[in-house]
């Protein structure tokens, strides 16, 4: 093989005829002088090759030659290997005793997919039309008829070298584009499947991985466990320590779980992920028994309870944990994950950090809850939320001096549900305001009916939850309902528990002021359970304290209990508040609260909560029998004390 000089326009000429090789070298070599008729060639070459042209603008070719097909194949192989591939191979068709040009072309194409192959032949065999199918691709194989003119050869070489360069540039651009697309796809994949803070798999990825783990252990007796964690009080920590520290804490928690899983004493595989704000998951596959899962979960739990060092401070965390496993709780990843979440939520509702292992009853409960949600929305619309009425007796006059309206869900099948069964649910699903409106509407309709039918003006107490205090349209809503029913604002009292009030006094205070300005009464419910001082009450527009039932219940148990009640009454009086004793169930309790100076009493001993008609009957009976039924002779009070 021979070559003249180095250039990137590398050309291989292959012919068994030494004369022809000489001809190629002459017309592709540096000394080539185009005649006047072909002078434009150099302009073309200049445009095509730029720097790879001589001072006259003629292209510079780096020509190599060999006289056999096999040698040509080897030359192409070496060129590719050394990173200096040919742009063109001119191939003679018949080169005895070796392989013919077509066979050489096929072998060359296998080695180099980019080189332009020119089949040079004196005959029309092989048929030029078939070359593209014989040695694809068709845009890189050419037919060139011998004998050729030197300029013809040089023009072809110039054009094909130019093409080779632009193909190369296009390929590079494509490669860059492909690389970018790949990188972007990777980034999107990461975003879609990984959590950016901890770099751990997210819910989507976890569920995918869980399915893989389940499928892998499908034919064995081994178990795949899904263990979910919720960091207790994380939002509190996040708020108090700052966002950065919170982020660090999440990252550390993830790392801790990974380490804990790696150290687990079993032979299976584990994956750790983050599937919610402060919610993490460990997928543990290849566990031999449910007992073993419990042992592993306990080990992980202990590990996360070790302190975390964040900003030089030791932070102690507790986590609620929910566990479900396959195949017992399902073979489908989504189902198992959902079951583990149900178990986690159960743990979260418990006061202390705890582990809940899924059991099938939970599914029933979750479904039941779901059904209840849609039922409750419907119930509000259908007017199934009503109130019952419980009388409050004046301990001074012995007359009914007030009524507490207590919500009830009157279901179409006749069952009646207590507030505990639907008030928390209404808050959870964000419809407690609708429920309040339903209750107040029912109360106002009833009260305006009493006024119309019996000219009876009795103040009614309605319970308010923390959610209502956050509704800045509260006063407006109350006003509009009361106006619509023509009920005077002085007839409405709103009961707020002490805990609700203290939860966020900054929110509660202005609302209470607005309400009070409007003219409705504010009563503190379940008083005494909030462990608070009374001092805050002095600044609030409150008129009444309702001593919590638990104090009344224990009244007769010990001297201390009765002194507590007396102290509450005393303080209430000192602040000019009216005091109601709640939960009065016995005559003895009634005597005592009367003696201690309570103003009103409410409880089963006096009357249970009743539907409107029963309540009216009750009032009527009280009126008919004794006008002052519950007020006992003072001698009895004395003897009890
Ligand atoms: P509460 O406001 O403290 O109401 C008193 C509860 O004690 C009522 O239970 C009543 O039936 C019960 N009770 C009354 N006297 C006695 C008694 O002598 N002994 C015993 N053991 N219990 C007595 P209920 O109706 O189940 O209501 C429970 C709680 O649900 C209420 O406590 C109140 O906090 C809440 N609630 C009721 N209706 C509504 C409402 O419309 N909205 C809101 N947000 N909460 C409501
Ligand atoms: Mg109440
Ligand atoms: Mg109460």
Brief overview, please?
The protein is 48% helix and 19% strand. The protein is of the alpha/beta class and 641 residues long.
Kindly list the characteristics that best describe this protein:
alpha/beta, Rossmann fold, 22 strands, eight-stranded mixed beta barrel, elongated, six-stranded mixed sheet, TIM Barrel, binds ligand C2E, 3 domains, disordered N terminus, 19% strand, 641 residues
Low-confidence stretches: 2-7, 626-641
What is the terminal separation in angstroms?
127 Å
Which compounds are bound in this model? ligand C2E, magnesium ion
Q: Tell me the fraction of residues in β-strands, as a range.
A: 15-25%
Average predicted local confidence, pLDDT: 87
Spell out the CATH superfamily of the largest domain.
EAL domain
Label the structural class. Answer: alpha/beta
Please give the count of helices: 24
Major sheet characteristics: 8 strands, mixed, barrel
User: What is the C-level CATH assignment of the largest domain?
Assistant: Alpha Beta
